Amino acid sequence: MINRSKAPHIQTVGTLNLHRPIVHQLSNGIPVYEVSLGSQDVIKLELIFKAGRWCEKEKLIARITSQLLKAGSHQHNAEQLADFFEYYGASLNIYDGFNTVNIQVYCLAKHLKMLLPMLEELLTTPAFPTEELTKLLKRNRQNLKVQLQKNDVVAYRLFTEELFGSEHPYGYNSSEDSFDKVTLTSIQQHFKDNYTANNCTIFVSGKVSTTIIELLEQHFGSLPSSTTAPAPQWELAPLQLPKKIHQVLSDDSLQASIRIGRRTFSREHPDCDQFYMLNMVLGGYFGARLMQNLREENGYTYGVYSSLETLRYSGYWYIHTDVGKDVKDAALTEIYREIERLQDSPIPLQEMEMVRNYTLGMQLTALDGVFNVASILKSLVTADLDDSYYYKFIQTIKTITPEQIQAMAQKYLNKEDLLEVVIE
Length: 424
Known about the structure:
Largest sheet: 6 strands, mixed
């Protein structure tokens, strides 16, 4: 019988091997990354367009264009489109981000042949109906009203706007008035400029056959390239820190949302991997120092984390938590105390090994399953990185020392460099 009074022995994670994709190229130059693994007869198809916020010439156009795509084509309306994918047990999802728009299809491999003509139709003859745009803008306005009543949403909006600027694609926020400026002409132009072959990358993962690659050529190999001017270039304004933003959203609020952090860097930065491990120690997982202090020892919150967000051309790091309004000052004191602890002395070797093993375990889990593997490869490709970056990252996890963690804290977590936002 297992003795459950003793913790299981910690197993060291050995070599992590990242599957290398097969790279094809369609007639129009679109790269296709094939990740063929597993025995299940399933496919994930993802078309990635450089059509996110970074590429828009007017605010909100990238998001509204991606949302309106599911309104259908000239041949099939939104209801017919949804019924078609449902009939084949498939899902169609469209996600917009800061730099890209991702169109994802999950289906059985045998059904992809029937689904691709509809997807091609959506990308070549989108309807963008005026009545659907009117409804979409109304829903967005209503949703924004609801969101702006939430402390955590307001805190995040103010935090990112202060870091990147109210005109920068990484920092601007939507308002009710901004939806009034969205026009059908701008949506159609954004689509024409950015949903093109020279802005597209395709990932296909699962049980991939030669026939599937041929089908991709058949349906997307003739997608036209853009002949318009390149996307706008955005410069990051100099940071004006330190700064504290404290606002009362509602006198009846019982909680305060806290965001503390700074602008950082993209994944290419030489300090990115070591800073990632610093973040893990401070607040990157449930047993991290912030959680032990604010939740376990003091009971100020149900949860507190820190996150490193690496964007294509920049990044940001922040601590995020919601605490009782009556203990917000005490919580802030403890947050800065934990940062100072990391700056003042190296973490104990036992803690270092625990964080190291936990992080390696996370990476091992991330390699479990063909779709997970494809996601890692996709994150590298869209950042213009290759598998050498991945192996360097793993090596950093395995070899980083407490002294290097301390040096990162001293370099990047000085209180005078941090932005503090509290909304209650």
